[in-house]
Amino acid sequence: MLQPVIPMVTAALLFGIGVFGVLRRRNAVLVLLCVELMLNAVNLILVTSDVVRAQITGQVFVLFVIVIAAAEVGVGLALVLRLFRLRANINVDDVELG
Amino acid sequence: MTAIDVMLSAVGLVAVGSALAVVSTQHLVRAGLWLVVTLGAVAVEFLLLRAEFVAWVQVLIYVGAVVVLLLFAVMLTRAPIGRSTDLDRPIGPALLIGAGSGLGLAGLFAWVFRDMRVNPPPTGSAQRVGEAIFGDWVLPFEVLSVLLLAALVGAIVLSKKDT
User: Fold this and answer.
1) Does residue A56 lie within any of the structural domains?
2) Which residue did the predictor score with more confidence, B158 or B161?
3) What is the CATH number of the domain that holds A45?
4) Nearest-CA neighbor of A34 among A46, A45, A47, A20?
5) Residue A96, min C-alpha distance to chain B (Å)
6) Is B22 within 8 Å of B42 (Cβ atoms)?
7) Which of A5, A27, B24, B45 lies in the 20 to 30 Å Cα band around B35?
8) What ipTM describes this predicted complex?
9) Which residues contact B128 (CB under 8 A, 6 or more apart)?
């Protein structure tokens, strides 16, 4: 027997830490890193709900989320590198909009 | 609490602690290395929850590829080795929203799942996951491959010298 409450609470805390990091960090690479934390928290919730419902669908969705995260981080880092080449600075506060 | 609960709690503590280090360290490279610890701990949680295939994919893709990519980006943007001084914004709003959402969700889950006990499920082996993907979820799988191709082309176009 296991208690699904433990991984659920862990995932909730990881998600909160990810939100905190996205808002707190100024460096664009660190912001991407914290987004990965949030995506991982969601993966943990999906796997845990699989355990609760005795199904496999959640794990399929975890694989989909991992693929999307890989695509996101690839394009995101290309954008960050382009920004660095244009401005020599990747502080998200200093990006001029418009 | 059974043995598996104790292990889940211990690994969860490692994950949360290293995640806190990711968002609080002043060394850019160390943030990436702490993220490896967090992702590894989450992979161990997957193993404890019998999601075997997903755990190994997590180790391969996240720890193997994504973190290496992030560390490459850290080096390519000429991050200083050692302490940086301008990594953080003021802590107030971030702490409010982050702690609010994290602790709020944690409280909600703790209340909803407080008395639930489940038997460990059958192992999520590659065979079971593969049967589910290629049985019920074949169309999203194919769409996802197109998305990956688009992301690949997009990343190449973005990082070309002059476009």
Assistant:
1) yes
2) B158
3) 1.10.287.3510
4) A20
5) 17
6) no
7) A5
8) 0.90
9) A56, B122
Q: Which domain holds residue A11?
A: 5-88
Of A1 and B142, the structure prediction assigns the larger pLDDT to B142
> Letter for the amino acid at B7?
M
SS3 per residue for B22-52: HHHCCEHHHHHHHHHHHHHHHHHHHHHCCCH
Q: Is residue A98 part of a domain?
A: no
CA distance linking residue B105 with residue B111, whole number of Å: 10
The residue in chain A having the minimum alpha-carbon distance to the alpha carbon of residue B133 is: A60
Give B-chain residues touching A74 at CB under 8 angstroms: 69, 151-152, 155
Task: Tell whether A10 is covered by a domain.
Answer: yes
Our count of domains for chain A comes to 1
How does pLDDT run across A36-95, given as a tens digit for each residue? 999 999 999 999 998 888 888 999 999 999 999 999 999 998 988 888 888 877 888 877
Closest CA to A83 of B158, B70, B154, B155: B158
Task: Report DSSP state, residue B163.
Answer: -
pLDDT digits (tens, 9 = 90+) for B55-70: 999 999 988 888 888 8
